[in-house]
Design goal:
alpha+beta, D-amino Acid Aminotransferase, Chain A, domain 1, 3 domains, eight-stranded antiparallel beta sheet, five-stranded antiparallel beta sheet, 17 helices, 36% helix, disordered N terminus
Length: 518
């Protein structure tokens, strides 16, 4: 058996080599040639290997409590099992409780749970370490072989990831499967610096700022220049190129600056004390060290009495077609107002179409660069006397915090979002809205297991009702007992109904959690 493993390793190209790149590009080209015939056919035989790895800087990720359970967010893709000839292979770092898997299969429209279960393979690394899931899989050649063996001959198979890096490319080549996602060689387009360049190419407004900054001296120089150009500037945002969910950001305030002082000396002397890092437990020096390795940007903090944080989600398919999938109004929180908390879907009618059209323009630009797969674009929007003014903030060439709620809605209702009207309609023409959050948490929830959550939801009628196509969906359930944290998608026939579901969910969980906690 050891000989077989050595032989398999010999056949694999060196990670990051030109040979690996060439093999990956060949796989992607084959995927594009077969895509048009297979994907639109709901009865086509296909296999999707889901790798929900958060392959990002592990120090930043470690600041997200219960991060290993974020791999459960892509369980929304189990909704693809509604296609009766589709098979799914789902990987995770640690085993996912069967009650959680059953929860998703029970909701499949038009398919029995038994039929879906026969087409689902759950595989685990049994490894809760801080390494990314993809890295764990690559260290387990026998697991890779099991993945291969579970793909039936004649199936069009591909990998679906949360995000793409060189590690995902290596895994794709070893599995000999294409990925519905962005080539890692293009990921620089989605960094904070790359985003600003793409936005300028698209003619979009961005906050005043500077990109491709390398170190502390560059940060100081950028802060000084921003303040000189705009004496009224009160705050600026320093961003790591590859931050996640706002955790790679820091805020610098000019609140105590006296114009009689030398500006450069003021920034240089006060930056260590005044730069407030968003992520918990990351010191100023840690942040600067991370900035030196990642590089990043400095931007003005956009002021405004009424500000929203909309986003648009799009997809570029392997044939180059750009689709606007959804718009959201994001809810940001934390002391700095930089951390993603949740989102309302769709974005408000006043600007949903406008945001969507900007997303389409970005998609057309990215297509010319060779990007495929899902991406999101975040904005800050300020209400003025003349209407809303939008500033493009950043691109995410990956799935994001608004991906899985929308996929759940679409999987449950088989509907679509209309760009022109900014409205989502189910298959029978009814409008639907939702409020979603990955960050519903309280200490009183600690100790509640997924089994407890199911009982609480059922007895309090918090379940999603398929007959009404409304109700509450839970995710991140694995994080509940240890971290007192879970995610929800609250679906309603009006925006008010959706938020009412959320308020009632919080009320019920607080009551039940207090009962357990006491």
């Amino acid at each position: 058996m050891q000989i077989g493993i050595q032989q398999h390793d010999y056949l694999n190209p060196v990670p990051g080599s030109n040979e690996e790149r060439n093999r990956f590009h060949a796989l992607q080209q084959t995927f594009a040639s077969e895509y048009e015939d297979i994907f639109p056919n709901v009865l086509a035989e296909k296999t999707i290997v889901i790798i929900p790895s958060l392959t990002i800087d592990q120090e930043i990720l470690s600041k997200v409590k219960g991060s290993v359970y974020y791999e459960e967010r892509l369980l929304c893709l189990l909704m693809l099992l509604r296609m009766p000839r589709t098979h799914i292979i789902y990987l995770s770092s640690i085993p996912i409780d069967p009650v959680i898997v059953d929860y998703y299969l029970h909701l499949l429209p038009g398919i029995t749970g038994y039929h879906a279960r026969q087409r689902l393979t759950m595989l685990s690394c049994f490894d809760a370490s801080s390494k990314s899931l993809t890295e764990k899989i690559l260290q387990r050649p026998r697991l890779i072989e099991r993945i291969r063996n579970r793909i039936s001959g004649g199936h069009l198979a591909h990998i679906a990831c949360f995000n793409m890096t060189n590690l995902e490319r290596t895994l794709a080549v070893q599995l000999e499967l294409p990925i519905y996602g962005c080539d890692p060689d293009l990921l620089h387009l989605g960094t904070k610096s790359g985003s600003r360049k793409i936005f300028r190419e698209c003619g979009l407004d961005t906050p005043q700022g500077f990109e491709d900054l390398r170190d502390e001296l560059d940060i100081i120089g950028a802060l000084v220049e921003l303040k000189r150009n705009n004496p009224q500037l009160e705050k600026a945002v320093v961003k790591l190129n590859e931050g996640f969910s706002g955790e790679g950001n820091a805020i610098f305030s000019f609140s105590d600056y006296d114009e009689s002082r030398n500006l450069k000396s003021y920034v240089r002397d006060s930056i260590a004390a005044k730069l407030e890092v968003v992520a918990d437990d990351i010191t100023y020096q840690n942040f600067i060290d991370k900035f030196r390795s990642m590089q990043g940007v400095v931007e003005e903090f956009i002021p405004g009495a009424i500000k929203h944080s909309p986003s648009v989600q799009c997809r570029i398919n392997p044939l180059g077609k750009v689709e606007v999938l959804s718009t959201h109004d994001q809810l940001l929180g934390g002391e700095s107002g930089q951390v993603f908390i949740g989102a309302n879907f769709p974005a408000i009618p006043e600007y949903a179409r406008e945001i969507g059209l900007m997303g389409r323009d970005i998609g057309i630009n990215l297509k010319e660069h060779g990007v495929i797969g899902r991406f999101g674009a975040d904005f800050i929007s300020v209400k003025t006397e003349k209407g809303w003014k939008h500033y493009a903030l950043e691109l995410n060439l990956r799935k994001g915090g608004t991906t899985h709620p929308f996929l759940m809605l679409q999987g449950l209702t088989v509907g679509n979002y209309d760009l022109e009207s900014g409205i989502y309609s189910t298959a029978n023409g009814q409008k639907r809205y939702y409020f979603s959050s990955d960050n519903l948490k309280s200490d009183v929830y600690r100790g509640l297991t997924p089994h407890d959550l199911m009982d609480i939801a059922i007895t309090n009628r918090l379940q999603y009702d398929g007959s009404l196509q409304q109700g509450v969906m839970f995710h991140l359930m694995g994080a509940l007992s240890q971290y007192g944290k879970l995610g929800v998608v609250c679906i309603g026939d009006t925006a008010n109904r959706a938020t009412a579901f959320y308020r009632r969910t919080v009320q019920v969980l607080n009551r039940e959690g207090n009962s357990t906690y006491s």
